[in-house]
Amino acid sequence: MNNLGYLTDAIFHKLDAEIVDRGSYYLIRTPSNPTYFWGNFLLFKSKPESGCSDHWLALHQTEFGSSPSHIAIGWDSDDQGDPSEFEAKGFRLEEDIVLSLSDAPLPVTTNPTLKIRKFNCARDWQESIDLQVIEGCEGVGEGDYRTFKTDQMANYRLNQERGRGHWWGAFLNGELVGDMGLFFDETGKIARFQNVTTAKPHRRKGVCTTLLDRVVRASLAAPRCEKLVIVTEHGSIAENIYRSLGFQKSGLQFGLCWQKKS
Predict the structure, then answer these.
(1) Is the pLDDT at 137 greater than 70, yes or no?
(2) CATH (domain of 129)
(3) Is residue 238 part of a domain?
(4) Pairwise CA distance, residues 114 & 110, whole Å
(5) Same structural domain for residues 71 and 30?
(6) Same domain, 91 and 145
(7) Residue 104 lies in a domain
(8) What's the average model confidence in pLDDT over 95-123?
(9) Range of 73's domain?
């Protein structure tokens, strides 16, 4: 894979999902979490062009059946291509920016009242699930989203136990107010952030900045670490926070999503 976003997504797919090279596209499937949009999708090796939608959707039907709960399609390119046919069929275009950092982070103002540490007990993981459900279930059903998050966090916990990275939390008076994961590829040279979350009542209090600063410094100190990668919505507030620490644009990541209406 050439796109740094999808390449580092594969850190997790290689451990928890099936990746099959079909020639013109990759099939990514996560049997343990079938509702995970970007764990069950097709990644094409070329950008979308006029006239491709019927063919791509037929390939998706071949791989996932005729009545999927969702359809997710990506392409291994920084070029948006022409997704208009998909958008006309009800798909939502997602555009994310891929940011990376290879040097020490820029100096930032941190929040000294926070305790930053790695997760070390079952309670930490459950509190993270609860936090992520509260912050992310809008527009999705809470029950379905909790099921998805529970399965996803179980995989992250397993990867931590395998020594591939850690989940980190920011705690205020013992309460989890922010968290994120960082996991390395098989070489130990590249690491990818996951699910950077801050509780709404604690936003704009330096939680994310403090957590990132600590995790970045600890991770870049690893003997083989060469690059940290984070992917976020292009033009978001989060992008500004990451750039303040020195993360720079390494490309764009595009995808198309459709969800069956309940």
Answers:
(1) no
(2) 3.40.630.30
(3) no
(4) 9
(5) yes
(6) no
(7) no
(8) 96
(9) 4-95+255-259
Token pair for residue 82? 């022409």
How far is residue 41's CA from residue 114's CA, in Å, rounded to a whole number?
A: 38
Per-residue confidence (pLDDT) for residue 18, from 0 to 100: 92
Number of structural domains the chain divides into: 2
The vertex-104 CA angle with 98 and 106, nearest 5°, equals 80
Contacts of 232 (CB under 8 A, 6+ apart): 96, 97, 99, 196, 238, 239, 242
Are residues 144 and 87 located together in one domain of the fold? no
pTM exceeds 0.85, yes or no: yes
Asked if 28 contacts 17 with a C-beta cutoff of 8 angstroms, the reply is yes
Q: CA 216, CA 107: separation in Å to the nearest integer? A: 12
Cβ within 8 Å of residue 27, ≥6 positions away: 18, 19, 20, 42, 63
The amino acid that residue 32 corresponds to is S
Residue 243 lies in a domain: no
| Residue 262 to residue 181: CA distance in whole angstroms | 31
Q: Cα(185)–Cα(10) distance, rounded to whole angstroms? A: 8
